[in-house]
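Recall that a protein's primary structure is simply its ordered list of amino acids. Everything else, from secondary elements to tertiary packing, is in principle encoded there. The following example makes that idea concrete.
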Amino acid sequence: MKTTITLEHLTKSVIAVPPFACEGSAEHCAESNLSLIRHIEAGGVSTLLYGGNANVQNWPVSRFGEWLDTLAGLVAEDTWLIPSVGPDGGKLSDQAKLLAKRNFPTAMLLPFTGPKTDAGFARSVRDFVQTSGTQAILYMKSDGYLAHDVIESLVADGSLFSIKYAIPRENTAIDPVLDDLIAAIGKERIVSGFGEPPALPHLEHQKLSGFTAGCVCIAPSLSQAFLHSLQAGDFTKARTQLKAFDALEALRDSGDPIRVLHTAVTLSGIADMGAPLPFLTEADDALRPEIEVAVRELLAAEMQARSVAA
């Protein structure tokens, strides 16, 4: 596991956001998680973020350290592994103490929807960083989540490493809030935060550093090639490459992104993801035939691309 990172690492790889394989009673399945990790790494992706798609907000704190150690032992030496923490202050405090015993360079703050003030939230972020020795990544999914001057101050004192930006817009290319955020902290600290489709306008128009995605778990080399086209400014090629993801992304939009991805990985044959963690179920039965067709087609395109590259 990579233990030292710089902002340049945000540009080197798509940030894969995988589901988490588990059995009953939240028992992790190391074999299935390893199969998925190796598939992602074999496609050239070297950054893994365990967050929403892994249902991390429902991981019990009593198992958090064990899961961190398991995942750290599964990834390659040059893979940047990013755990998520929170979303509430109690979990954040307990997880900071667990991370202090380990060597993770960053952790993502899951979005908090309860009562908070900017000053109180910023204080808790600084307390987390001081206790854990781990820089924070802010996950922004809604307008007004945290004032830009507060974000700027967290970056300035070293508490905040980067931002995963995932505020939906009718036209992603036009986003004054994102423009103001870029003006405050620079585009090099911000990644597009909700898949390949929004990454295209975000990297074309706002020139963000990279993007996070779920479908990259099925087709890492295709997603990585898409990132390279965006970074090279070849947006015509990028639009063509994006079409490979359309069917599965449409099903994720219509049937719940987390649940569909969890089921899709299992149906792809890459790894059996087992039962979802608490509060969630697998994708609706009615969608399973469509998911299987879409994921098998995407995986076939991925393996064809690897064959050509070899």
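The first strand starts at residue 15 and ends at 16. The chain has a mean pLDDT of 96.
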